[in-house]
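Lab notebook, bench 4. Still working through the backlog of constructs that have no structural model yet. Next entry is a single chain of 473 residues. Request: give me the structure tokens for it.
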Amino acid sequence: MRFNGVLRVSAVLLVVVLVTVVVEESAAEYTKTTKHRNAYASMMYMGTPRDYEFYVATRVLIRSLAKLNVEADLVVIASRDVPVRWVRALEDEDGAKVVSVDNVNNPYRNQSNFDRRFKLTLNKLYAWSLTDYDRVVMLDSDNLFLQKTDELFQCGQFCAVFINPCIFHTGLFVLQPSRRVFEHMMNEVRVGRENPDGADQGFIGSYFPDLLNQPMFYPPSNGSILDGNFRLPLGYQMDATYYYLRLRWSIPCGPNSVITFPGAPWLKPWYWWSWPVLPLGLQWHEQRRRTLGYGAEMPLVLIQILVYLGILAMIRLARPNLTKLSHRRSEKPAASFHSALKLTAFWSILATYALPFFIIPTTIHPLLGWGLYLLGSSTFSFLAATVFLLPLLPLLVPSLGIFGVLLVMAFPWYSDGVVRGLCIFLYAFCAAPVVWTAAVRTTASIQSSIDRDAFFVVKSGETLPSSRFNKWC
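Model written out:
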């Protein structure tokens, strides 16, 4: 009897433990899938030359929102062809909820003014299908959050910012999800509703044509949710170009909360070369350093550094033999070969500055990117000077000039953007004669070597010309 009682108690305890585990797992799963009534959402799709860059930007956006402790779910609307490993990284490492969707067929792709890089931006309309949420703040990946903006969830059915006096920007807008509105939008896409640019900007703008006449949004202090459509204050979408005139933010309309970068696609803030051309690029990378980091790119950076150091060591140790192998010939070649050699020398010098630029990981930190570029261009300059018997200093002048202009652009104490622009112009004006002189000197050195047959002929009893590797000017 006593043994049976122990068994019963053990069985009851086991059942309680199992039920507790199941309840906790269910609660955890529920919390993971639907934690909040509202959501911040972004989108990802494939098919552009910059898919990876936007993937990195989306991860930085999601992590920066999480770091601000926003009281909302973080959602990524991803097309079904987004790589599985990217989806898992967003879900498991970044805490995002990924919603897989089919690409919206864009009927405007044959318009004369259609930009093909926007062919899948109509996927943004899927934000209206997120009916598990009361409000959704839809975001482009190039938004940089300076502070928490959860008050936006108090806005009405549709709210957006006019960074253009007459056209609101779809880089950030607030919406109330609705299956009815979503299906109506899909039908409007199919019938070819008027769309000035063939992208999400033109379609959504034509769907809410009277937003300019709506009142400005001011969040109620009691936390209540407004009804209707509203214009958002400019502080929720501060165009980065506003900053470059004064080199500081001075937006009196609403909180200075979100920076957007709607300019040229190749000057988005995640590209290493965008800074210091655009000073705010460093601020975006600082946010990435604090959130996502640069672990994905660092192996490639280290490999390139080792390769460049290896090339420099090879030049230093094998310089005499390299000169002999490159230039010893038994007879004088034809004049056409002279021309070919001159062309090869010129293209090699151009490659000295072009090749390092294209092999650097595009989303690396600007300080690492520019440092790696200058190391690579200097290494190839040493190599070209050795192979073509050229003075080294003229070949290094472009690297020195680039380093100088970086210092001028990055100088942090300009009073405003006009003064910064004038200083850059003055530097370019002073540097241009130096660069031109270096180019003329290099061209003359190539021609002189060819005229003396220094590359080709070694007569009987004649010694090879000494290497000019150490001849600096």
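Notes after review: Confidence is low (pLDDT under 50) at residues 9-33, 456-462, 467-473. The radius of gyration is 30 Å. Flag for follow-up if needed.
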